[in-house]
Amino acid sequence: MTHQVLVTDKVALPGLHPLVEDHSFEVVSMDDSSSDEFAAALAAADALIVRSATKVTAELIGIGTQLRAIGRAGVGVDNVDVAAASERGVAVFNAPGGNTIAAAELTVALLIAVARKIPAAEASLRGGKWDRAGFKGVELLGKTLGLIGAGRIGGEVALRCQAFGMGVVVYDPYLSEERADELGVQLVTLGEVLDLGDFISIHVPLTEETRGICGADALERMKPTAFVVNASRGGVVDEVALAAALHKGHIAGAALDVFEEEPLPVDSPLREAPNLVLTPHLGASTAEAQEGVATEVAEKIRTLLITGDVSGAINARDLG
């Protein structure tokens, strides 16, 4: 029996070796998910693998009448209607570990970039200026990193920032004391993170609890010398409130890799905010991470289609 797996969004093909090298699988790669050809292929597919571009709606899932699995080559599943998949008995897999290092390294890069005003200084120099005095930054040594969330990525950020001589405080109601001790961090309340953090980095999924967790009240509570970094999910930072806080000087700066609406709208207030570093959702954009998330999802889908094991699915409890 041959299982057909449809792949889109330019998922890294080398990462699909668990499927490609197994002769019981046929991998069909098709980047235009809006085409009639894609719909025809989806109707015959046993599994679908996507990244971020394709919105796996209830309608799309309905076309895939043979689907048994949907794989998101990345951490979040914001672009997958998990409820609709569960209703049709389709397992949904993600790849929470494949891009951990890439996302952690980007977070630290953003933190340093905003602390040392690197993007603005580079743009100034390319514009013909030599303005050393205008780009005085701050050092990381001796500063406090406040983490909102310390799972896989947040934990790696903590370890890297400790190497710069930073102390780390964490708000994470799901982090055990034992794990906090392993990481060498101090568990505190959300209010204490906001009060103590010289740099505040957010590492949480987008849920009803976390939406807008960094809003106007939180920004008002931070030190005027504080910096905010978000490379987790758009929506956890109130973008209008952040832009206002930067214009008013309520915080020193911020760096964002993710946004509530992507691509970032042309009229977003963030585009005109001062002391703000913006990148276009690059957290998983390394060759290693793209291959890693593809492999992680491919292995889970292969296991499901061969053995029926859904234990690795994020909606396993809803599949009966």
What does the model show?
- The protein has 320 residues and is α/β, with parallel strands linked by helices.
- It has 2 domains: 3-98 and 287-319, 3-Layer(aba) Sandwich (Rossmann fold), CATH 3.40.50.720; 100-278, NAD(P)-binding Rossmann-like Domain (Rossmann fold, 3-Layer(aba) Sandwich).
- Helices cover 35% and strands 15% of the residues.
- It contains 12 helices and 12 strands.
- The chain has helices at residues 17-20, 36-44, 58-63, 82-87, 100-115, 118-126, 152-162, 177-183, 190-196, 216-221, 239-248, 287-307, and strands at residues 3-7, 25-29, 47-50, 69-72, 91-93, 144-148, 167-171, 186-187, 199-202, 227-230, 253-256, 276-278.
- It has a 7-stranded parallel beta sheet with strand order 8-7-6-9-10-11-12, sandwiched between helices.
- The model has no long low-confidence stretch (mean pLDDT 96).
Number of strand segments: 12
**What is the chain-wise order of helices and strands?**
EHEHEHEHEHHEHEHEHEHEHEEH
CATH superfamily caption of the largest domain: NAD(P)-binding Rossmann-like Domain
According to CATH, the fold-level topology of the largest domain is Rossmann fold
Low-confidence stretches: none
- Main sheet: strands, sense, barrel: 7 strands, parallel
Spatial strand order of the main sheet: 8-7-6-9-10-11-12
CATH class of the largest domain: Alpha Beta
DSSP strand (E) fraction? 15-25%
Indicate the mean pLDDT: 96
Proportion of helical residues? 25-40%
Rg of Cα set: 21 Å
Distance between the termini: 25 Å
Shape: elongated
Domain count? 2
Q: What is the count of DSSP helices, taking H or I runs of 4+ residues?
A: 12
Assign the CATH architecture of the largest domain: 3-Layer(aba) Sandwich
Structural class: alpha/beta
